[in-house]
Amino acid sequence: MSQLKQISHLDNIPSTPGKFKMDKSPYIHRLRWHSSHAKLTFWFFLFLGLMLLLFLRSPPSSPSDPTRRSLRTSTWGGPAWEKRVRSSARVRARHGLSVLVTGAAGFVGTHVSAALKRRGDGVLGLDNFNDYYDPALKRARQALLDRTGVFVVDGDINDSALLRKLFDVVAFTHVMHLAAQAGVRYAMQNPGSYVHSNIAGLVSVLEACKSANPQPAIVWASSSSVYGLNSKVPFSERDRTDQPASLYAATKKAGEEIAHTYNHIYGLSITGLRFFTVYGPWGRPDMAYFFFTKDILKGKSIPIFEGPDHGTVARDFTYIDDIVKGCLASLDTAGKSTGSGGKKKGPAQLRVFNLGNTSPVPVTQLVSILERLLKVKANRMMMKMPRNGDVQFTHANISLAQRELKYKPTTDLQTGLKKFVRWYLSYNSGSQKKSSW
Ligand SMILES: O=C(O)[C@H]1O[C@H](OP(=O)(O)OP(=O)(O)OC[C@H]2O[C@@H](n3ccc(=O)[nH]c3=O)[C@H](O)[C@@H]2O)[C@H](O)[C@@H](O)[C@@H]1O
């Protein structure tokens, strides 16, 4: 009422001297005033509503968060999104697991996610789709997973609000943590990205796991590179890992120590897997077997590294399907985490396994196999191994994984590369097969 009184009072007073027009009836003026006031109120509430909606949908982030800029454009959240998350993570098999797979649009992540889904486990993927290599390949893998029934959330492992949300929506029994900055030599160009993903990112994931209720068991990707300058072969889990040859290796080694801490303090069950040069269909374009294939087909020269005195450089190349079996066996045999509400209740399992092939192959032989499969002679450019993080050879002792995980690699390099080349040619032919396994 008082507002009405005020309005009628105002009606009789010119707002600005000279603008008050006596020729218009006060009634008409009042009507106009009311309608503009109503409009104003309408727009005000619309604006307020929009702001509220934006606030509720966007995740809170701390100002010190290095991914803050990318978080602003993050699109997670909302009822439809949560429904997709729940449905993707729903367990369909009896005694199935509910697994959060980080780095799900990556090479190993895609294969592991699909394999889990096929056997009836619930799987939710998470990936930030960064451009370390062509994101189109990651999107193609995502499309493939989508058809398998796996939803890959677009987000960063450093986004702790997102991780919290995921654990709020789903009570994951396991986390398969594969998101990382990979590549040995790239560490010299972009050291920060290794610290961001492999150290800060790992801590962010472990923080979310430790606070989750129930705490999940964690299996994560370490690397054969932690053996660094170790010269005792084959590499056993008991050998020294305190001489990393690259920052990449150092961040993976740091990850193993961080895992120890979270196991010790919070009772998290953690298994680290030291992968040995994993290759296969849907692989990583930054790896030698992949870009050698591309460059041989283009007639470009390929740099082949040699050790001192023309010494052989060799790798224990391991086929993706063998690695997937090792990952699944690790999840299946993982003990439960013992903590709850961020507090340890008892000792929990802490394991590290080599997942290799136990038969190192010289890089020159890798090239010969590719030449035969592609029916093209490579333009070989022999060169001294640059001092940028590489080690001369790797060779896994897998007896521990054999004993504990029943891990038994079955694919030799020739057979595995044949499958890779078949996929590579089909993927790049733009044919219908482009997105099949
Ligand atoms: O085992 C591992 O954990 C690591 O395996 C690979 O690292 P790497 O073995 O160096 O794989 P590639 O980069 O594909 O190199 C394979 C071999 O080719 C050699 N190479 C590489 C590049 C090149 O131009 N020429 C060349 O001869 C390397 O010295 C190496 O012996 C992955 O890139 C790492 O992310 C992973 O952590």
From TrEMBL:
InterPro entries: Epimerase_deHydtase (IPR001509), NAD(P)-bd_dom_sf (IPR036291)
Organism listed in the record: Tetracentron sinense (Spur-leaf)
Similarity remark: Belongs to the NAD(P)-dependent epimerase/dehydratase family.
Keywords assigned: Isomerase, Membrane, NAD, Transmembrane, Transmembrane helix
Transmembrane segments: 40-56
Protein name: UDP-glucuronate 4-epimerase
Superkingdom: Eukaryota
Molecular function terms, GO-annotated: UDP-glucuronate 4-epimerase activity
CC annotations in GO: Golgi cisterna membrane
Domain called NAD-dependent epimerase/dehydratase: residue spans: 99-333
Record localization: Golgi apparatus, Golgi stack membrane
Lineage, uppermost ranks: Eukaryota, Viridiplantae, Streptophyta, Embryophyta, Tracheophyta
Catalysed transformations (reactions): UDP-alpha-D-glucuronate = UDP-alpha-D-galacturonate
EC code: 5.1.3.6
Membrane topology: Multi-pass membrane protein
